[in-house]
Amino acid sequence: MILALILAALTAGALAVIVLPLFLHRPAPARRADYDIAVYKDQLRELERDVARGALDGAAAQSARLEIERRLLAADMNPEGAVHDKPPAGLARSNAWRWTAILALILAPAALLIYLDRGTPGMPQISFADRAADREADAAREAQVADLIGQVEARLAENPDDLRGWVLLARAYVRLGRIEDALKAQATAGDLFDQEPDLAQDAAESMAAFGELLTQAADGEITPEARAAFGKAIGYDARNARARYFLAFAKMQDGDPRAAVADWKALIAETEMEGGDMPPWLASLKERIAEIEASRQQ
């Protein structure tokens, strides 16, 4: 009987959690990138405080600032970020907190009673041997991935004109840290793109995405190989926004923020001239340009 009452209480609580939000006003969802951008801005402010009190020297501060700015702008350039619902405001929020407290008072003791009755409080911690087994399982999964890549390589050996296969293989190599193999695979894809003039925009986006993967693999540094990929993308399509953005950021890494800002402003101007819906990264990029220019004037 007691167990039935506990299960009924748990069911009622779960239903309340599910149904209650349906009666509350919920504003439009926000992109996950918006949360990432807020975090990066806080990191920039903290960095400036560290510099002001002498905790970081000029070189270390510049390196940290460039990396944070790269992540900030890259997050804002991602138009397909996941969304997270914002909590309801005003009275709805206070009601939500009240219900949360009530449900917590019901569910917490109920969960404890069920665990003491059905659970295993005396179960020992995971042993070193079990952890070693987990590591072996991870290694087995990596071996499986390598085996799948081997199968793709075999299919490409039989069908070397499979453009999509070379593109996917190049990206897989980057994620495995096989940069030289990735460069060779992407070069083959580039040769195939050259044979298809109608795919110029697709080729540009593929090369730009490959350059971004190389940048991520190098912990945010735009390597010569990444710059070459971005340059190749511009060769296919001079208007490719991703490649232009990263090439401008490369100038920031080279210590030339004036040139970087000029390139970003040109990118923004051309995007606005096209009309239509503005991409979500536009407003934040303008804000970052203003911050960079303000810091240069100090």
- Fraction in beta strands: under 5%
The overall pLDDT average reads 76
Looking at CATH, the homologous superfamily of the largest domain is Tetratricopeptide repeat domain
Largest sheet: 2 strands, antiparallel
Per-chain topology:
Layout (H helix, E strand, L loop, with lengths): L1 H18 L10 E2 H21 L5 H19 L6 E2 L5 H29 L9 H31 L4 H13 L3 H16 L5 H18 L6 H13 L4 H13 L3 H17 L7 H17 L1
Antiparallel strand pairs: 1-2
Helix pairs in contact: 1-4, 2-3, 3-12, 5-6, 6-7, 6-8, 7-8, 8-9, 9-10, 10-11, 11-12
Walkthrough of the structure:
- It is a single chain.
- Strands 1-2 form a two-stranded antiparallel ribbon.
- Helix 1 packs antiparallel against helix 4 and helix 9 (224-236) runs antiparallel to helix 10.
- Helices cover 76% and strands 1% of the residues.
- The chain has 2 domains: 2-118, no CATH class; 131-255, Tetratricopeptide repeat domain (Serine Threonine Protein Phosphatase 5, Tetratricopeptide repeat, Alpha Horseshoe), CATH 1.25.40.10.
- It has 12 helices and 2 strands.
Key terms for this structure?
mainly alpha, 298 residues, single chain, 2 strands, Serine Threonine Protein Phosphatase 5, Tetratricopeptide repeat, 12 helices, 2 domains
Structure summarized in a few sentences:
By secondary structure, the protein is mainly alpha-helical. Helices cover about 75% and strands about 0% of the residues.
